[in-house]
Amino acid sequence: TVSAPKQREEGWSKIRNAAGMLFQMPGSRAARKDKDQPRDGAVPIRGVRGDLPVRFAPEGAVPGDRIVGIVQPGTGITIYPIQSPALQAFDDQPERWIDVRWDIDEQTKERFPARISVTAINAPGSLADIAQVVASNDANIHMLSMVRTAPDFTEMLIDLEVWDVKHLNRLLSQLKDNSSVSDARRVNG
Predict the structure, then answer these.
(1) CATH homologous superfamily for 112-186?
(2) What is the pLDDT of residues 46-55, one digit of tens each?
(3) What is the 3-class SS of the chain, one letter each residue?
């Protein structure tokens, strides 16, 4: 059987280099007062031309998060999870905020960035234990930094690639259950 293509709600559109997300931009049909006014297909965003580069905030965003886009003039759009404290810097600039939501194909093989903080017991094999939990959960470590915070503990910032928020939460839960880990939590900004 062939399934019918998903219908998008009016006013939501895709951007070529932002697979898996829908955007509601200023100037979209749903946002215009005169809905009968013709549109040329372009998405008018002040300060940004042509194809919009889309990137994630340093702490990442994963499917299942509520997300928002911030227009970075001359740069593109940065996607943030709605709970990111970094968004407070844009509170006085509502014209830069763009509604964004996930539109992920269930067959996608794309992983998404998320940053976690792990407080590990400073003992031989603790990094190997943490890496094993990540690997056994089909996640990927993109970047890792470690700082010894006390003689017995090491703080790790780990940039992961995960499928979605459920995947991330399952991984965090298993890290917390690991004997080499004192604490594990998501970093939101």
Answers:
(1) ACT domain (3.30.70.260)
(2) 444 446 788 8
(3) CCCCCCCCCCCCECCCCCCCEEEECCCCCCCCCCCCCCCCCCCCECCECCCCCEEECCCECCECECEEEEEECCCEEEEEECCCHHHHHHCCCHHHEEEEEECCCCCCCCCEEEEEEEEEECCCCHHHHHHHHHHHCCCEEEEEEEEEEECCEEEEEEEEEECCHHHHHHHHHHHHHCCCEEEEEECCC
